[in-house]
Amino acid sequence: MKLLNAGIGVMMACSLSAQVVGTDTTTNAPLNSAQNLLNSNKKITIGGYGQVDYNQGFNDTARTNGKLDVHRMVLFFGYKFNDRVNFVTEVEFEHVNEVYVEQAFVNYKIAEPFHFRAGLMLIPMGIQNEYHEPTTFNGVERTNIDSDIVPSTWRELGLGFTGNIDGLSLKYQVYAVNGFLGYDGGGKLRGKDSFRKGRQKGAKSTMSSPNLSAKVDFYGIRGLKIGLAGYFGNTQSTLYDGLMNNDTTNLTAQADSSVVGMAMVGFDFRYTFKAFQARGQVIYTSVSNTEQYNKFTGKDVGSAMMGYYGELGYDVLSIFKKEAKERIVLFGRYEFWDTHADVTQELIKNDSYARSAITMGVTYHIAKGAAFKADYQIMDNEMEDNEPSNQFNLGVAVWF
After folding, report:
1. pLDDT of 40-78, one tens digit each?
2. Smallest Cα–Cα separation from 150: which of 337, 342, 385, 353?
């Protein structure tokens, strides 16, 4: 009983140490759950986030059942060994019955602007892959670009360096990581959602060649954050395992046909001024060796993918109550993304992969770290005679 009481006391102390901070008030640098844990002065810190969703599609010709889902419930744990060494991990329960480790890394502060990091880390590309706590973005669901092109939540095993250069208002990240698994007895990638099925998620990951991930963020203007990111390398393949170094047979040719090269670049921005907010991003990916990959695997991966979105929002409650602690943000967003932006000659471009979405809704922040959400989406694609589909979404979001 004494041990149980002690454990409960530690858990209570840890939970009280967690707090929601979205932006560093000194440097204007954006923060997420992991960075909040790293900034904590407590020995042990616990935090979390979660979302519960209701999605109701509409179809002119047939009834559509609504879907209710405990989409994700996540716990963050941070342990501070000393002033220089921290451990951060994120454990996610998705759709109630799926469990994943989304982050698990050690951060070693060599000097103030120079940190060494190793383990399972988020790839810094776009906005939502790093800042995916559901109270930090409008809309019940994450943006489509951050699903079909940037396959959130995208994380890799690796190591590298990160830090803030406050004199220049810059944050940098440079990592060497494993890549997507493009082949494991069959092709894993496909044209519809590019690399999403190739995520290894840190589970017995295969690495046939390392990849490079890097990003620079600028936060020198109050309320404005600008990011420029790149990811370069090859997908991974199990066919390289056991190949002799001097092999010149058909086995090497098959292995080479089971991978694609990728060069992804992204630009993003976030801006807030009093009650006004805006954000957007552009992602472009060039994919090489797709002709050989598609012939070998029977897939339809495009040789280029691109997407962008722009969003505007305004806290209408501030019009009537300027000092209100609650916020009611009305927002609108337009997205376009095409995973067949370009294809090789042997592949017919699939116009249904060129998609757009208009999302309009409201986010009611009832407290710092808690929100109710509602939005309506109109989704379309460039396929001839295609009819747009509509969807109404409701959500509950928390972050602590």
Report:
1. 889 999 999 999 999 999 877 788 899 999 999 999 999
2. 337
Supply 383's token pair: 């396929």
DSSP H or E run through 253: helix 250-257
Query: Which amino acid, residue 327?
Result: R
For the stretch 245-278, pLDDT in tens is: 776 677 788 899 999 999 999 999 999 999 999 9
CB 329 within 8 A of CB 359: no
Instruction: Specify the long-range contacts of residues 270-275, CB closer than 8 Å, at least 24 apart.
Output: 270/30, 270/127, 270/224, 270/225, 271/223, 271/224, 271/225, 272/223, 273/223, 274/318, 275/314, 275/315, 275/316, 275/318, 275/319
Show the domains of the chain with their CATH numbers: 2-399 (2.40.160.10)
> What are the residues facing 227 on neighbouring strands?
217, 268
d(CA 400, CA 135): 10
Burial of 212 (0-12, 13-18, 19+ CB in 10 A): middle
